[in-house]
Amino acid sequence: MAFNLLNWLLGFLALDIGIDLGTANTLVYVRGKGIVLNEPSWVAIDKRTRTPKAVGLVAKEMVGRTPANIIAVRPLRDGVIAEFEITEAMLEYFIGAVHQQTVAPYPMPRVVIGIPAGVTGVEKRAVYDAAIAAGARAVYMIEEPVAAALGAGLPVGETRGSMIVDIGGGTTEVAVLSMGGVVLSRSLRVAGDELDEDIIQYMRTKYNLLIGQRMAEQAKIEIGSAYHLPQEKTMTLRGRNLVTGLPDAMEVSSVEIREAISGSVQTIVDTIKDTLDEVPPEIVADLMEIGVCLAGGGAQLQGLDRRLSDDLRVRTWVADDPLTCVVRGTAIVLDDFDKLQDLLVGLERGDTRR
After folding, report:
1. Which CA distances in Å does 189 have to 78, 82, 214, 231, 264?
2. Exposed end of the chain (fewer CB within 10 Å): N or C?
3. Which domains, from first to last, does the chain contain?
4. Full-model pTM
């Protein structure tokens, strides 16, 4: 009786939180408040003690600028936890920041958190344990493509089939959904980070110019594209000349950046094609009517929807505010938990009781 009363009090006083724990960005939704936090998944730590010095945007601003005793790292790689203790500290910081913003009386939230579709049991356990250690009283997990489909407004619960492609920082998730379940899914560890690395390597090979990750990301966002642009653009990239060792700058065009990332873009396209090749004919007919939805930060790559429409011969469209689709999907689950809890996955597939 006392235990049930305690649970009721916690449910009343604590928050319900949805988290998109991404390789590049972490977004947090609070039930009744909306999306209250959108920060880069970066942590600056002391090399010797491994204690966090800064988290989120402040830590990202330190990249490449820290003194010798501090390093800025991303504790998630390819959508999964690579540095458990640092991820725990990051989650604890974000959950604490949310409680400060919302002035919740009890800091033990119930959490729904997005995970890549292809993760192993060990990787699921790491996410679960990190969230519990960060202060959550209950943790539920949902596959990111399912959450993204909910957030994008696709008819996940209907008999009609739908298809989502969620391109994040570390992974590209492709899923075909029908009747509230996943018919087919693919998880590819080629996404936004790989495009950044492609640009870095291109500049190094062609121009002997070593640029940083932030400069490469800026080039991808401003002039990167997967399809020829109506008016091609140029941008000046700055870094270190590998021949002279001195600072240098080079003006590059959107045509060159498109060439630099073409291999990774083609890998993503081929994965989507392979998924479509295995889809039942009835669902293919549905997709020709509904189209293929793009979500995640990578969906904002210029011309990607046109490239996929041409290659797949199926209308491809970008969801509204694609970066927030996953966290909006967790919000929908929290708002109608009893009805949608079958979409959640536990530490063992299908077990949501933990």
Report:
1. 6, 14, 20, 31, 10
2. N
3. 2-40+81-147+325-345 (3.30.420.40), 162-190+268-319 (3.30.420.40), 192-261 (3.90.640.10)
4. 0.86
- Of 209, 186, 183, 200, the residue nearest 279 (C-alpha): 183
302 secondary structure, DSSP code: B
Cβ(178)–Cβ(157) below 8 Å: no
| Distance between CA atoms of residues 273 and 246, nearest Å | 45
Q: For residue range 147-178, what is the model confidence (pLDDT) as tens digits?
A: 999 999 998 888 899 999 999 998 899 999 98
Query: In this predicted model, what pLDDT tens digit does every residue of 176-202 receive, in sequence order?
Result: 998 878 888 888 889 999 999 999 999
Residues 6+ apart with CB under 8 A from 278: 184
d(C-alpha 296, C-alpha 288), whole Å: 22
In whole angstroms, how far apart are CA 215 and each of 158, 169, 240? 43, 16, 12
> Which amino acid makes up residue 18?
G
